[in-house]
Design goal:
The complex is a heterodimer of chains A (270) and B (389). By secondary structure, chain A is of the alpha/beta class. Chain A contains 12 helices and 10 strands. Chain B has a domain of 260 residues: Orthogonal Bundle (ABC transporter involved in vitamin B12 uptake, BtuC). Chain B is globular, with a radius of gyration of 22 Å. The chains are: A alpha/beta (270), B mainly alpha (389).
Chain lengths: 270, 389
């Protein structure tokens, strides 16, 4: 399923540079993401993939350059407000609210779409409760649509879930914020092949239900990178090496060397 | 199985029985504990409590059963609770010391519930609850002594003053985390104690004396309380006042816990970065937790000041904050019942172990450790939320 070339840009980055102390974690990286597009990001460890995600989500403020969501500058906007504007993410090492129920994790994802404060909670209880129950109903539907198995476990503490379900829950929690852009940081890490296949199916289903949702996926698993994204961006030493369809970027020798390692290059040559 | 139609009503009946029996047994136990003079009886009652905890730990089904009974019959539970609390002073047979211990326990229960918003819900180690308690007490006492403000006006005014100080403490605390945050709150507690000790208008180390007795509709709280011809000691006035405050605190705690705010606090307790990435303004929710804590602590401080009639800086030391923290941890983080039981246990234990004179603090510590060995998550640990029940 290709993205039409006329689809509008949702997210773009320009000249993004990130200096952490004396280290340049990211140098002049530019990227674009269209509505409904899936962009894969690959690169060896330390290439700046997670740095890029942290810049987009407002956890880091870039030293120079800017990020724009639908034309609006995001630099300096605090992380929690960026979520409200429509960018959600998952983490490389899944960061669930482990001692809360699976359902509560997703309900917390509705935070930006609910309003009740301390006064509402205490003095206008009916209203606050109705709002929360609506959020819980929404969360139940979302869980059901992401994974039936996860929905069946909704009253268990999130910390008790298996690895694959933890990833799914993180995705469901991120989707609960109704994002325009979803950033997935190594969703398949720590999974075997069959889990990864199931996860890919779930991600495809999520995208099929939300044709406007744009995705950025950081991945190491080449099977996933080969089949899921429309386009792949390669980062190395904080710089952009290449950007294009998987079939094209995999032929570039520097990509093979940078990402797959020298051995693979030699194998390819042999 | 032969009469499936009788099953639900049978369940409702047994649920009602549980809801009536458990509070009555609890109250009877508390009465015996309060009135016990002999140290052997005190130890026996503590052993009984330990046995109950062991049974609950071994039979989680029993605990769940009791819990569902209370959830289903919540109206009846509330009614039984009110009757038990209202009737309790009559069961003490005019023992003023036991009533006094009840008042102090309830004030500590309010303080523990206040701290629970931070420590239990949001995992903010605040060692300054004792300071907020003191600010509330001093603010109301100063208003009453200098401006003749009545107790009923001083009560909300002191809570507002304590809340403002809570905000002030919250702001510098936001730049720190974990141990460093704890250090900032400890420093705040020390600063407050030193100021109370050295300022002129707070009376220095001598504190404030002659705080007037509250009155309500012409009834002075220093007079015996006569109900249906039955006279209760003057402490009963404050007993009912603090019981009302505990009730209000429980309502606050329950409503906040089951709300979006409680969820946000729980989120930042579990993982601050993940909470931020769900759109939660972590800084705001932390400051809010400080303010709510200080608000309730201020109320408790006012009642304490007017109850005792004399306050000095030594009533509000760092040790008070540590005690409140122990109540929350030993009772059960983020569990309202647990925190209240913890407050009662830790207030009453040192009093009831007086027979051991010099060793009583040792016995106190040993008892707390033993209970925590039986229930490592606290007496009544945190529960998962349910929706639509």
């Amino acid at each position: 399923m290709a993205v039409s070339s006329s689809a509008p840009l949702v997210l773009e980055g320009e000249n993004l540079t990130m200096r952490l102390g004396g280290l340049v974690a990211m140098a002049e990286v530019a990227f674009t993401l269209k509505r409904g597009e899936i962009l894969g990001i690959i690169g060896p460890n330390g290439a700046g993939k997670s740095t890029l995600l942290n810049i987009i989500t407002g956890i880091y403020i870039p030293s120079s350059g800017e990020v724009r969501l639908e034309g609006q500058r995001l630099n300096g906007v605090p992380a929690h407000k960026i979520v409200a504007r429509g960018i959600a993410r998952t983490f490389q090492s899944s960061r669930l609210f482990a001692d809360l129920s699976v359902l509560d994790n997703v309900v917390i994802g509705r935070h930006t779409h609910t309003k009740a404060g301390v006064f509402d909670a205490i003095f206008r209880r009916r209203r606050a409760k109705a709002e929360l129950e609506a959020a819980a109903a929404h969360a139940e539907d979302l869980l059901k649509s992401v994974s039936r198995g996860l929905h069946a476990q909704r009253h268990r503490p999130a910390g008790e879930l298996a690895q694959a379900d933890r990833r799914r829950l993180e995705i469901a929690r991120a989707l609960a914020t109704d994002p325009k852009v979803l950033l997935l940081d190594e969703p398949s890490s720590g999974m075997d092949d069959s889990d990864t296949d199931a996860l890919m199916d779930d991600i495809r289903a999520v995208c099929a239900q939300r044709p406007d949702l744009a995705l950025m996926i950081i991945e190491h698993d080449m099977r996933l990178v080969a089949s899921l994204p429309h386009r792949v961006m390669v980062l190395d030493y904080g710089q952009k090496l290449a950007d294009g369809p998987y079939e094209e970027i995999r032929k570039i020798p520097r990509v093979q060397e940078a990402y797959l390692g020298r051995k693979a290059t030699q194998h390819a040559g042999a | 199985m032969a009469h499936p139609s009788t099953q639900p009503s049978g369940n409702a009946l047994s649920a009602a029985f549980i809801v009536i029996a458990v509070p009555l047994i609890g109250a009877a136990f508390l009465r015996q504990f309060l009135l016990a003079e002999d140290w052997r009886l005190v130890l026996g009652l503590l052993a009984l409590f330990a046995v109950v905890l062991v049974v609950l730990e071994r039979l989680p089904a029993l605990e769940t059963r009791i819990e569902t009974a209370f959830a289903r019959q919540s109206r009846l539970a509330l009614l039984v609770g009110i009757v038990v609390v209202l009737g309790f002073p009559f069961a003490l047979g005019g023992n003023t010391y036991a009533l006094h211990l009840c008042v102090i326990s309830m004030l500590y229960a309010v303080l523990a519930l206040a701290l629970n918003f931070q420590l239990g819900s949001a995992n903010i180690p605040n060692f300054a609850t004792g300071a907020s308690y003191g600010i509330g007490a001093y603010a109301s006492a100063l208003l009453a002594l200098n401006f003749g403000v009545s107790f009923w006006l001083a009560l909300p005014a002191a809570a507002v003053v304590a809340t403002i100080f809570g905000f002030l403490l919250g702001i510098p605390s936001m730049r720190t985390r974990d141990s460093y945050l704890a250090l900032v709150t400890i420093a705040f507690g020390v600063v407050v104690h030193q100021l109370l000790n050295n300022l002129d208008f707070t009376g220095g180390p001598n504190g404030l004396v002659g705080i007037p007795v509250p009155e309500l509709f012409g009834h002075a709280f220093s007079d015996p309380l006569v109900v249906f011809g039955h006279a209760l000691p003057p402490q009963a006035n404050f007993y009912y006042l603090s019981a009302l405050l505990v009730f209000i605190s429980i309502v606050f705690a329950e409503r906040l816990h089951d709300s979006r705010v409680g969820l946000a606090w729980n989120a930042l307790r579990a993982d601050e970065l993940a909470a931020r990435c769900q759109g939660i303004n972590v800084t705001w929710y932390k400051v809010l937790a400080f303010a709510v804590d200080a608000f309730l602590a201020g109320f408790a401080g006012t009642i304490y000041a007017f109850y005792v009639g004399f306050i000095s800086p030594d009533n509000f030391t760092f040790l008070v904050s540590v005690t409140i923290m122990t109540m929350v941890i030993a009772g059960g983080m983020d569990n309202i019942l647990g925190v209240i039981v913890g407050a009662f246990l830790l207030t009453l234990l040192p009093e009831k172990l007086r027979a051991f004179s010099d060793y009583r603090i040792l016995f106190f510590g040993v008892t707390v450790i033993l209970f925590l060995m039986i229930r490592p998550q606290g007496l009544f640990p945190q529960r998962l939320r349910r929706y639509g029940d």
